[in-house]
Design a protein that fits this description.
Strand order of the largest sheet: 1-2-3-5-7-9
CATH architecture: Alpha-Beta Complex
Family: Belongs to the enoyl-CoA hydratase/isomerase family.
Keywords: Lipid metabolism
CATH class: Alpha Beta
Shape: globular
CATH topology: 2-enoyl-CoA Hydratase, Chain A, domain 1
Pathway: Lipid metabolism; fatty acid beta-oxidation
Low-confidence stretches: none
GO biological process, one term: fatty acid beta-oxidation
Organism: Platanthera zijinensis
Mean pLDDT: 95
Largest sheet: 6 strands, mixed
Strand content: 15-25%
């Protein structure tokens, strides 16, 4: 499902195998477990100067929710329940990424569709291969409503309403060069290896800043208030702010 390795100050989380990396409950749980390990290990090492890269093996970054698993439930009510379950679990994963005490970079090494696109967009930076793969919101084509937190994430990260319209109302598939020109991703690269290399390089540069992770996470959440609310993260309390201030260099 996924693996986690540490390269110096950079954690690399990889969705493993040559499949579509569909986000089933088990896959989401495995990713969340890996992120919990990242948070624990970084805290044990001082809680500052780390970064995370998320990548995937094969031709897909992630092709979204495991719709085959949902349909295998048989009845319409069971299918809806399973879809709601995956949506709820992914919302928790997005909250985990928003709270992770370090910069995060998605290395999109293949197609990223629907929930898979949202997984990539939940990172601070997105590097994408340019020789193949696209970003795609398939919901309009398969007649599924888009969860509110998906919309909050896209509105926060994609500021041009015309681009958002293309994605969610037209179901347009957007390749890397166009995604970069439209401000959806940060950089397009030649192939998968170049994309991962660029993501790790960016992560190493950010880790070298030696920022305090909890402060970084707090500021990130502050830049995305709509997303924070949509995924159920509470506002920081005065006590939590005082704790962060105690780590200040002032």
């Amino acid at each position: 499902m996924c693996s986690l390795e540490k390269r110096g100050r950079v954690f690399v989380l990889t969705l493993t195998g040559d499949g579509e990396h569909r986000l089933s409950p088990d896959v989401i749980a495995a990713i969340r477990d890996a992120l919990a390990r990242v948070k624990c290990e970084s805290a044990a090492a001082g809680g500052r100067g780390f970064a995370l890269v998320t990548m995937a093996e094969g031709r897909f970054f992630s092709n979204g929710f495991d719709l085959a698993w949902a349909r295998s439930g048989g009845s319409a009510s069971t299918i809806r329940t399973r879809l709601d379950s995956m949506g709820s679990l992914l919302r928790q994963l997005v909250a985990d990424l928003l709270s992770l005490p370090m910069p995060t970079i998605a290395a999109v090494t293949g197609h990223a569709a629907a929930a898979g696109f949202m997984l990539a967009l939940s990172h601070d930076y997105v590097e994408m291969r340019g020789d193949r793969g696209f970003l795609y919101m398939s919901e309009i084509d398969i007649a599924l409503p888009i969860p509110p937190y998906f919309m909050a994430l896209m509105r926060s990260k994609i500021t041009d309403p015309k681009v958002l319209r293309e994605l969610v109302l037209e179901g347009k598939k957007i390749i890397a060069a166009e995604a970069m020109a439209k401000g959806i991703i940060d950089q397009a690269h030649g192939g998968a290896a170049e994309t991962v290399k660029a993501a790790v390089r960016r992560a190493e540069e950010l880790a070298e800043k030696n920022w305090i992770g909890e402060v970084y996470g707090s500021i990130r959440r502050g830049t995305l208030p709509e997303v924070r609310f949509a995924v159920g993260l509470p506002e920081e309390t005065d006590e939590e702010r005082q704790k962060l201030l105690s780590a200040s260099k002032l």
